[in-house]
Amino acid sequence: MAQSIQAIRGMNDLLPEDTSVWQQVEKVLRDTTASFGYSEVRMPIVEQTNLFCRAIGEVTDVVEKEMYTFEDRSGDSLSLRPEGTAGCVRAALEHSLIYNQEQRLWYMGPMFRHERPQKGRYRQFHQLGVEVFGLNGPDIDAEIIALSNEIWQKLGISEHLCLELNTLGNAEERAAYKENLVKYLEAHFEDLDEDSKRRTHTNPLRVLDSKDEKVQEILKGAPSLYDFLGEESRNHFETLQKHLTSLGISFKINPRLVRGLDYYNLTVFEWTTTALGAQGTVCGGGRYDGLVEQLGGKATKAVGFGLGLERLVLLLTTLEKVAPKPQVDVYVCGMGEEAEAEQLLLCRDLRAALPGVKIMNHCGGGNFKKLLKRADKVQAKVAVIFGDDELKNNTLSIKDMAAQDQQTVSRTDAAAAIQAVLNK
Known about the structure:
The protein is of the alpha+beta class.
């Protein structure tokens, strides 16, 4: 007996019940980004490996441990995208979208990281990405945070999310801070965990984000990045806070928040929840003013965020804020020799008269009891029933599946009768 083929670990199927919930969430995401005037961009899921090495940083966990990288038949090193910002910047540069102009873009799709699969963390996962190019003020930072907040409000989960905020300053300020941070960490080197020891000389800011309790205790005496900020960086951060306060968006300052990728500067933020245990970050982003130049373009101010759909859907289902919707509104079933051809015509006419209504045609014949059982199984709100007598009289039976009421109407009045039941 042949061994059964299964999905790759950490790469999950979404079945019809799952996709119903995802479609509801995706509609909110699309509608919200559109309402802010953002335009959709779609990039390939495979890029040159060097793009991610240059953008994310070669000493990050993503590049060192997590990317799916392979050589194609031409010997080129390619990688499945582990995040969307680098590809979006590459596309903007390649197609001259950001030369002397601003762009407000969004995208949605799968990303790939070879991590240990666990609840809320998968090897194939999906993100909404929002990226803005060509604007440098704290007002646009506030806008994208407001956009994410609008999503939580529309989904009814604002009270379950907390906005954490920090600033990383500019490159010079950060370099001076790193030098002092490394000296401090070296003085406590033997007490650090292995990850923090490795990062001390490769990516010291990531030590601030350590989940090790002993390391966090050591960090209480570490120098503060805020003390190294110049007037311009301080003003940017303070003005951002004023904008958020005026919008009524609550936040807390987290001086340990650095994000996991090398390209961030100035504003960084995360939306976190306590409802999902350890995997509490639902959305995160910030400003990355040096990335466009780093990838070969002219210096361009930029800011954006990524929102994890798996975690958002998990949060919504945990809080019972969203539920699967029936895939069918109307189930059309006929009996008798003439029914099969007539059902196809009737479904065509009803779809034209009732745009947006989900209409399923029964196929395969069967008796009256079987037809209604099938209509009930697909959770149809209305069953449209006819046989030889109805065909002869040009009528249809309209059954309200919830109330179990049934009425006979003329064929011309069928659409209105169905709509009345659906509107109840």
